Amino acid sequence: MKYYLVAVFDKESYSKMEVLQKRLCNKYKIYKNIPTMHITLEVIEDPDLEKLQRIVGDILRPYKKFKVETSGVICFDPPYKSVNLKVENKGYIIRFARIFNETLKLHGFNVRQNIDNWDLHIALANTNYAIREWSSSEYVAACNAAKKEGFNNMALVDRIEIWKPINNKKEMLVKSYNLRDY
């Protein structure tokens, strides 16, 4: 089973992004339960969960909460049909992605081979966990509307979590690591 290492936002940052996500998802009625917004830092195949939790905890021990910059909307064409906020690949967020990828590889975990072609993003709406597939015209319209509305902002990441790939907020969380205050 795949597990995801994700960056999660504080309530204030989340609520700002949620306005755009809800508007988009409600208009196209593609979800029963809207997925939690996050930034995927790493995807791990069939990990030893105890070892993974220990290593992630060791990596995160010295780190504080940090901000990421969102710079508009990025869309991933079919088969993904995904509308996302683009995250700037700079600062702590890209450092975390690199550190997790390299450290987990060194410890024998099955992770992505190359993270250089990975666009950091925050999914607003896509085909994952959707109750219906949105049509190509709906996807294009949603992408264009989101791009027109835009979203340039700073968001505070206050924790890193390990998730199972399910859209049930109570069952998907494996472990949460709160980052230190400034």
Sum up the structure in keywords.
alpha+beta; Cyclic Phosphodiesterase, Chain: A; 35% helix
Q: How many H/I helical runs?
A: 5
Pattern of helices and strands:
EHEHEEHEHEHE
What share of residues are in beta strands?
A: 25-35%
The residue-averaged pLDDT reads: 93
Low-confidence sequence ranges? none
Helical fraction: 25-40%
Distance between the termini: 35 Å
Question: Structural class from helices and strands?
Answer: alpha+beta
Query: What's the CATH architecture?
Result: Alpha-Beta Complex
Looking at the structure, the CATH topology is Cyclic Phosphodiesterase, Chain: A
Largest sheet: 7 strands, antiparallel
Determine and state the CATH class.
Answer: Alpha Beta
CATH superfamily: Cyclic phosphodiesterase
Protein model, in words:
The chain has 182 residues and is of the alpha+beta class. The chain has one domain (2-178): Cyclic Phosphodiesterase, Chain: A (Alpha-Beta Complex), CATH 3.90.1140. It has 5 helices and 7 strands, in the order E-H-E-H-E-E-H-E-H-E-H-E. Strands 1, 2, 3, 4, 5, 6 and 7 form a 7-stranded antiparallel beta sheet that branches. A hairpin with a 5-residue loop joins strand 3 and strand 4. The protein starts with a strand and ends with a strand. The mean pLDDT is 93.
